[in-house]
Design a protein that fits this description.
Elements (H helix, E strand, L loop, with lengths): L1 E5 L4 E9 L6 E9 L6 E5 L13 E6 L3 E8 L2 E9 L19
Antiparallel strand pairs: 1-2, 2-3, 4-5, 5-6, 6-7
Length: 105
């Protein structure tokens, strides 16, 4: 299980669960991702997890005060930026991710 958290700096923190026996699971930081250079992370969007192997498993979106939204994919423990969208100076404050009805991934 992975946990993604925004940070007041340019980083997105990726953590992993290391003790599932604790009611309030503890996570340790395994990677800091410089998601938005010289800008703070203002929003994170994580798609619902799917056991059917949908293509967005292991992916997330970040929004930054630099006026961009970025799509990230975690493959084999490495996070890579897939795409960036320029919002022309608009600040993303929330990101919601969902599968379209009838889609298969």
């Amino acid at each position: 299980m992975e946990l993604y958290s925004g940070w007041w700096s340019e980083h997105v923190i990726r953590g992993s669960e290391y003790d599932a026996q604790i009611v309030f699971a503890q996570f340790e930081c395994v990677e800091q991702i410089a998601a938005h250079q010289e800008a703070s992370v203002s929003a994170l969007g994580v798609p619902p997890w799917s056991t059917s192997g949908r293509v967005l498993n292991g992916s997330f979106f970040s929004g930054g005060s630099d006026g961009s939204v970025r799509f990230w994919r975690s493959t084999n423990g490495k996070v890579e930026k897939v795409q960036a969208l320029d919002l022309k100076g608009k600040l993303p404050l929330d990101l919601a991710v969902a599968y379209l009805p009838g889609s298969n991934g």
